[in-house]
Amino acid sequence: MNENASTKQKAEVDVEDRRMRYRRIPDEAVRRLPMYLRGLLLCSEEGLQNVSSHKLSELLHINPPQIRKDLSYFGAFGTPGVGYDTAKLAKQIRGILKIDTPNKAALVGLGNLGSAILKYPGFGSYNLEISAVFDNDPVKIGKTVRDVKVEDVSKLSALKKKGITLGIIAVPASAAQAVADGLVKAGIRGILNFAPYYLDVPRKVKVISIDIAMDLARLPYYLPASA
Amino acid sequence: MNENASTKQKAEVDVEDRRMRYRRIPDEAVRRLPMYLRGLLLCSEEGLQNVSSHKLSELLHINPPQIRKDLSYFGAFGTPGVGYDTAKLAKQIRGILKIDTPNKAALVGLGNLGSAILKYPGFGSYNLEISAVFDNDPVKIGKTVRDVKVEDVSKLSALKKKGITLGIIAVPASAAQAVADGLVKAGIRGILNFAPYYLDVPRKVKVISIDIAMDLARLPYYLPASA
DNA sequence: AGTTGTGAACTTATTCACAGCC
DNA sequence: GGCTGTGAATAAGTTCACAACT
Prior knowledge:
The structure is a homodimer. By secondary structure, chain A is of the alpha/beta class.
């Protein structure tokens, strides 16, 4: 799938065009790369020059061979007997993920969730920035939030000139497809979707969906019957 | 793995105790059950009495045989030549997920994200309700938001008497483990975690993690090099 | 001794193909 | 004719085990 599900959200229809890649890299390995980055950041704060797959495993609870294999898909970054250079590996991973240079995102929908996303402090460490905001509420349009001016959602095409490559959809399900169409028309090729709706987009566009309610909804399944 | 990752967020250490189940049901099938419910709701609104795996496939973009196999892990709910009874299948799935009766959740952390989650309208259709809120900010404690009184996070143990079985963590990474410990001590056995941190919890506790920044961070990887 | 990188073995998940039922 | 349920085949992902390197 195309990750229209929830985080791992895996894939039935593969939006990503794999034909272009030489080696076959598992989606799951890509999914874990940002985690490795998080682990490396923690090690860096601890002042560690080098880090082993075992050390990362402790922090992230991913098995050491898994970590080594994932990294090996992209190259040989470590030194036998020593481990990985903390800073160098982080740099390599950022390069692979293409977050070594800043990535700008447009947020569509400034409701409760959209506002929270706009203020979310976690994007910075991945070189991500929300640099445009759209809504359809006349009361919100024109206002400035976090140094970003709220624009009318009908003017999504204005994105083209701004070097914005990512879109975040935080609108109700009923509006999500129209917003996705607008984003695609504006040249966006990557969408993070919070609406509980399957987005029909061209194959070249990658969609990752997060459905908060769905994730909470499968928790009861795992609860012991007694509780 | 234990889903401490991001939505699919999949799992490294398997928190779920599989030994107790007779048949082996793929985690992935469970992950898709709420999607089927969403599709069935749409069909129900369309007034369809019956629905085929093909029809659901159109709505959700999950292949028909996948849908049939997933459902078959739990029983034979369909009628050959006809399909599934929309209402009955929805009821079955709610039973499997144990959301046929209401599930109460405690939200910890009333920052931007926590506030958005509290107001999130999507939980109702899965019979989920946030019926307790905790924070450590004296300014917030004592206030009432959405009919729920904000309590001091140090009083998590009060949960025990309230019939609350789920926890939602929306605090900074640095506080997440302490909150998780508190929730576990209060008897919670299912946690939805928004903090970018691996939560160390007993095996009997199921953790599903959502890391928004991480999900956005792997989008650039899939962008065409030119863009 | 300690650690990486990786082919091979294994496990898990998806898709196919079709018998059987309505 | 249309659709389910499912064993068998395929594909994807994980873990193991160990040679090679520092």
